[in-house]
Amino acid sequence: MIQRIQSLFLLFSSLFYFLYWYFGFDFYEKGFYPIVAKKLGNISDYFFTFTSYLPLFISIITFVTIFLFKKRILQIRISQVALYLSIFMVMYTLFYFYFSLNFLINEMPTKTMSFLLYAAILNPFFSSSFIYLAIKSIKNDEKLVSGRGSII
Questions:
Q1: Measured on CA atoms in the order 28, 30, 34, 35, is the torsion positive or negative?
Q2: 95, 90, 99: which is closest to 34 by C-alpha?
Q3: Domain ranges of the chain
Q4: Residue-wise pLDDT tens digits, 34-71
């Protein structure tokens, strides 16, 4: 299970997205309704619900994928779904912070929290990279096991 590098990549991605969701939910809500909801109009409540739980959903997907190490093809497919959702999260993070960064910086009580806000901007980028590296490693393992990568 944890003997392969892809398990560590998936674990880090899962941990990063869980922390992103757990610690960022209150600040996400503070920045969403005054700033971003005005841009979205009528769909803002539905969109808020979807995007606020998306990091948790990605975290669960990547964590469950770790335990599918004996079914590599399924592990690749589920990891690809997580990667697509993570890429959406990257784009949405850019959109969200483009509109609400100045407002949120003024809401931060300390400089440390402001620094963590900038770290939150980078979190989906790192997590997407980890998921991509996990998929690449799983594919390499599948090649080795299937015999196409064996040395003659």
A1: negative
A2: 99
A3: 5-141
A4: 776 777 777 777 888 888 899 999 999 999 999 998 88
pTM of the model: 0.85
Residues 6+ apart with CB under 8 A from 54: 85, 88, 89, 92
DSSP one-letter string for 26-86 = HHHHHHIIIIIHHHHGGGHHHHHHHHHHHHHHHHHHHHHHHTTTT-HHHHHHHHHHHHHHH
Longest dimension (CA), the chain: 64
Distances 49 to 29, 42, 54, 101 between C-alpha atoms, Å: 10, 13, 9, 20
- Condensed to tens digits (0 to 9), the pLDDT of residues 85-119 reads 999 999 988 888 888 888 888 877 888 888 888 88
